[in-house]
């Protein structure tokens, strides 16, 4: 019997699988044992070919070449990872390998990673599938004991392939058409353009919003505050100040009739377990992590540390077969956070119910929860601890009893007016000992005990309250993710059927791609950040004027996802879907070509590009201002101002580095300015306070491409490095 070739998605997972399968012989890009060979991709090793790879004529961008509807679309090896592809192909093609086990991430994209490699390598051997949600030794062993027939996942691959090809046909063609038509770097796509539209609509709502003053009437009786309510709307806001004053006048000398006293015992369950989107939202709100950062950290906790389950999930429930593992998972995370709550759970029967265990609400993957593996605290960095803590808290919370409280509602009347008072008293904190440690608002039971239904009480005070209506809040990354997940209000169509489609398909994009879409909008300078707020740029606004209407609506992508789901279930042929996509692509190209719209660079500067000497555009990158060449084929760019990790000596906020080499200056929002020479001198005086570990840590952080650059501080600290 021959050997089995196991294909993982990343080296770290490959190494874990090799250890479990006793593949101890290390080769160049693979491990080998008696029965198995384990190798890996580096994410995607193979992708769809660019247009120029179909012929020299497509190297130049021209409307004459559109639409490009090549069939079939070619697969090419990604140049940067070509070496590892050769390793994988060689191992797959070995004569002593009789079958392949796909062990890439268990999902649509993971299936695509493996199948494209197999297709490009032209290997035709039987396929098995490893389908697991965590990469602990136990999960890997259990997964290999119940491998699936690869043919069961053929439709999932068809769906993944259809998604990739559809995005290529529409995205590549529409982007080239816009760029050629308007001679500007413009791009669009089925997810990024509706997302940009949502940001634009929110900004429009805010700009059009006119605040309104409103008033209320409050009466105090027996130490309890009662608020006026409209008899019909049950709303306490009065938009006419004169009306509020008339109500106050009419209450002088009056008593309050107690018409109803209602006492209710209530309870609420903890929020559901985390899916990726909800985790990204909370991490953004609490720690200001971007969506991409949160995904990256969670992926590392899953892959490298093996303390969390698979992160790219859209489910917030677990399945019944996981219930027996819950106590092991509690033990694994019990020492990390909320140990008293964990100890309590381990000593009792667990509160298992439909609020978090439901097979019907789990598709490919269950919610993100801790694994049975205890984390090594020393191996987790601060950011990893924060994300792990969020998941642990949510996990423990759903297992704890419900939060219980007593609510008393009192309805009073004076003249023809209605007044309402409500209070609550906590009887059991339940899950809130983990998720909400703040003291709950309570009421003085003695005050309410003096209130009896059918009686009258003296009004001791009457006052007018006031407030002002607020506009919708600008999007931040967390709220934008929520809008992408549930974009119903941003649909132009009011059809209930289409709204249902949006709900069933989980919004626009997927949990795995939304973070990348937001990043792409930033890197294309279609949106920018001001603090935490996301704003659309002038370029973004103009792009929405140029893009065909259908591409701007969330409905289109929802319909695509619905059809892709049908393909994955075998109820729709991939070829039928792609035929419609090609027809749609032709329509999009014609619409762009016939458009009478104009595009203007309104951020043109007088600075010349060092590469081609054309005038450059000033844009706000995610880390600061920069200049980019207006010529899309040149690609020249220069930094104007960079947010650094250096702190202002006055207000301790991050300093911005401006100017070119030889004339750099540090600037702070508080007004502090400091030349590079002064900065270096100040830092020199602090050298005795800097230890070697801090220096090494800082320099390593500064080397990362996605971190703010602070050459001056790095240079200053480098002097102390031994």
From TrEMBL:
In terms of domain of life, where is this protein from?
Answer: Bacteria
Record SUPFAM superfamilies: Prokaryotic type I DNA topoisomerase (SSF56712)
Q: Which gene encodes it?
A: topB
Enzyme class, UniProt record, top EC level: isomerase
Origin species, per record, is Proteinivorax tanatarense
| Chain positions covered by the region annotation Interaction with DNA | 187-192
UniProt name for this protein: DNA topoisomerase 3
Residues at the active site:
310
Which of UniProt's keywords are assigned here? DNA-binding, Isomerase, Magnesium, Metal-binding, Topoisomerase
Q: Where is the composition biased (Basic residues)?
A: 680-690
Any one GO cellular component localisation term in the record = cytoplasmic replication fork
Gene3D superfamilies listed in its UniProt record: 3.40.50.140, Topoisomerase I, domain 2, Topoisomerase I, domain 3, Topoisomerase I, domain 4
Q: Which family does it belong to?
A: Belongs to the type IA topoisomerase family.
Q: What does this protein do?
A: Releases the supercoiling and torsional tension of DNA, which is introduced during the DNA replication and transcription, by transiently cleaving and rejoining one strand of the DNA duplex. Introduces a single-strand break via transesterification at a target site in duplex DNA. The scissile phosphodiester is attacked by the catalytic tyrosine of the enzyme, resulting in the formation of a DNA-(5'-phosphotyrosyl)-enzyme intermediate and the expulsion of a 3'-OH DNA strand. The free DNA strand then undergoes passage around the unbroken strand, thus removing DNA supercoils.
* Chain intervals with Basic and acidic residues compositional bias: 691-704
Which chain positions carry the site (Interaction with DNA)? 61, 168, 176, 312
Ranges where the record places region Disordered: 679-704
Q: Which InterPro entries match?
A: Topo_IA (IPR000380), Topo_IA_2 (IPR003601), Topo_IA_AS (IPR023406), Topo_IA_cen (IPR013497), Topo_IA_cen_sub1 (IPR013824), Topo_IA_cen_sub2 (IPR013825), Topo_IA_cen_sub3 (IPR013826), Topo_IA_core_domain (IPR023405)
Q: Which NCBIfam families match?
A: PRK07726.1, topB
State its Enzyme Commission number(s).
Answer: 5.6.2.1
Domain Toprim intervals: 3-136
Residues annotated as binding Mg(2+) are 9, 105
Q: Where is the Topo IA-type catalytic domain?
A: 153-589
Q: Which reaction equation describes what this protein catalyses?
A: ATP-independent breakage of single-stranded DNA, followed by passage and rejoining
Which Gene Ontology terms describe the biological processes this protein takes part in?
A: DNA recombination; DNA repair; DNA topological change
> Which lineage is the organism of this entry classified under, starting from the top rank?
Bacteria, Bacillati, Bacillota, Clostridia, Eubacteriales
* Gene Ontology molecular function: DNA binding; DNA topoisomerase type I (single strand cut, ATP-independent) activity; magnesium ion binding
Which cofactors does it use? Mg(2+)
């Amino acid at each position: 019997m021959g050997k089995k070739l196991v294909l993982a998605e990343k080296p770290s997972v490959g190494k874990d699988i090799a250890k479990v399968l006793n593949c101890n012989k290390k080769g160049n890009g693979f491990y080998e044992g008696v029965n198995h060979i384990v190798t890996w991709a580096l994410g995607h090793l193979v992708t769809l070919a660019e247009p120029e790879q179909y012929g020299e004529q497509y190297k130049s961008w021209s409307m004459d070449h559109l639409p490009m509807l090549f069939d079939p679309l070619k697969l090419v090896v990604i140049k940067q990872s070509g070496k590892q592809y050769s390793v994988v192909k060689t191992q797959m093609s070995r004569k002593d390998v009789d079958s392949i086990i796909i062990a890439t991430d268990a999902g649509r994209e993971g299936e695509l990673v493996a199948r494209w490699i197999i297709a490009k390598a032209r290997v035709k051997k039987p396929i098995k599938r490893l389908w697991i949600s965590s990469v602990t030794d136990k999960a890997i062993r259990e997964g290999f004991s119940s491998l699936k027939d690869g043919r069961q996942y053929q439709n999932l691959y068809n769906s993944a392939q259809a998604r990739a090809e559809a995005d290529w046909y529409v995205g590549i063609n529409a982007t080239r058409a816009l760029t050629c038509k308007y001679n500007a770097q413009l791009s669009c796509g089925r997810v990024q353009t509706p997302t940009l539209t949502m940001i634009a609509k929110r900004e429009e709502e805010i700009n059009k919003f006119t605040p309104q003053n409103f008033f209320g009437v409050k009466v105090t009786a027996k130490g309890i505050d009662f608020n006026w309510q409209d008899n019909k709307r049950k709303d306490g806001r009065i938009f006419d100040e004169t009306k509020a004053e008339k109500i106050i006048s009419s209450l002088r000398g009056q008593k309050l009739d107690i018409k109803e006293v209602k006492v209710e015992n209530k309870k609420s369950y903890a929020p559901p377990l985390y899916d990726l989107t909800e985790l990204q939202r909370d991490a953004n709100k609490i720690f200001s992590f971007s969506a991409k950062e949160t995904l990256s950290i969670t992926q590392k906790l899953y892959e490298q540390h093996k303390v969390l389950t698979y992160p790219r999930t859209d489910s917030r429930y677990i399945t019944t077969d996981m219930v027996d593992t819950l106590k092991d998972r509690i033990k694994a995370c019990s020492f990390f956070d909320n140990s008293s709550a964990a100890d309590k759970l381990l000593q009792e029967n667990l509160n298992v119910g439909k609020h978090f265990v439901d097979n019907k609400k789990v598709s490919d993957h269950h919610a993100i929860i801790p694994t049975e593996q205890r984390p090594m605290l020393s191996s987790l960095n601060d950011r990893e601890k924060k994300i792990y803590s969020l998941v642990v808290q949510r996990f423990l919370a759903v297992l704890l009893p419900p939060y219980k409280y007593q609510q008393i509602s009192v309805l009073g009347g004076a003249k023809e007016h209605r007044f309402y008072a409500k209070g609550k008293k906590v009887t059991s904190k339940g899950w809130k000992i983990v998720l909400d440690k703040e003291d709950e608002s309570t009421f003085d039971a003695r005050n309410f005990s003096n209130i009896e239904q059918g009686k009258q009480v003296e009004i001791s005070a009457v006052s007018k309250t006031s407030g002002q209506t607020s506009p919708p809040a600008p999007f931040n990354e967390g709220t934008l993710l929520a809008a992408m997940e549930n974009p119903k209000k941003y649909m132009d169509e009011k059809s209930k059927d289409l709204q249902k489609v949006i709900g069933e398909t989980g919004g626009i994009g997927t949990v795995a791609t939304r973070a990348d879409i937001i990043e792409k909008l930033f890197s294309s300078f279609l949106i920018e950040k001001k603090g935490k707020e996301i704003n659309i740029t002038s370029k973004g606004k103009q792009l929405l004027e140029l893009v065909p209407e259908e591409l701007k609506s969330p409905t289109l992508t929802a319909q695509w996802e619905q059809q892709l789901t049908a393909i994955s279930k075998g109820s729709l042929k991939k070829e039928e879907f792609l035929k419609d996509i090609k027809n749609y692509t032709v329509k999009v190209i014609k619409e762009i070509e016939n458009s009478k719209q104009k595009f203007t660079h309104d951020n043109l500067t007088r600075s010349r590009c060092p590469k081609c000497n054309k005038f450059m555009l000033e844009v706000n990158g995610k880390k600061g201002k920069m200049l980019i060449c207006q010529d899309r084929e040149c690609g020249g760019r220069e930094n104007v101002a960079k947010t650094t990790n250096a702190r202002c000596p006055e207000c301790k906020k991050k300093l911005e580095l401006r100017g070119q080499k030889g004339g750099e200056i540090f600037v702070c929002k508080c007004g502090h300015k400091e030349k590079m020479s002064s900065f270096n001198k100040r830092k020199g005086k602090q050298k005795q306070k800097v230890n070697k570990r801090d220096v090494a840590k800082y320099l390593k952080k500064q080397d990362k491409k996605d971190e703010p650059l602070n050459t001056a501080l790095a240079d200053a600290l480098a002097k102390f490095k031994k």
